[in-house]
Amino acid sequence: MITTLVQFQIEGSDQVEAIKKVFADSVPGYQQVPGLIRKYYLISEDRSKAGGVYLWKTREDADALYNDEWKQMIRDKYGSDPVILYFESPVIVDNQYGETHIE
To answer: 42 lies in which domain range?
Structure first.
């Protein structure tokens, strides 16, 4: 499995409520993305960055989402380019569901 961390700059605490609404409104668009297992929406404590943590079945699944159109959507909505970091996720502990995944 692959975990990605996506980050982009935001303009500060005055935007947080608006960003939360944009996040909530975007949920349906992520519910049927092939290979996406889980997504967490993020806003940094200092309110300077936002983004998401995504858990994917494969790198190819992640790359299929992070195309030029998706990157432009992030620019349009948030006014900054996304930075995407990729991590291999060989072990996952899920305490909510009492599961452990080991590859």
So the answer is: 2-102
Q: In terms of DSSP H, where are the helices of the chain?
A: 16-30, 59-65, 68-78
Q: What is the pTM of this model?
A: 0.92
Report the DSSP beta bridge partners of residue 8.
50
- Lookup: tokens for 103: 């590859």
Three-class DSSP category at 101:
strand
Cα separation values, 92 from 12, 55, 97, 101, Å: 33, 10, 12, 5
Q: Is residue 93 within 8 Å of residue 100, measured between CB atoms?
A: yes
pLDDT by residue (tens digit) across 23-47?
999 999 999 999 999 999 999 999 9
- Tell me, what CATH number does 84's domain have? 3.30.70.100
Q: Provide the CB-side half-sphere exposure for 45 (13 A, CA).
A: 0
Cα separation, 77 vs 57, whole angstroms: 27
Tell me how many domains the chain contains: 1
Q: In angstroms, rounded to a whole number, what is the distance separating the alpha carbons of residues 103 and 87?
A: 14
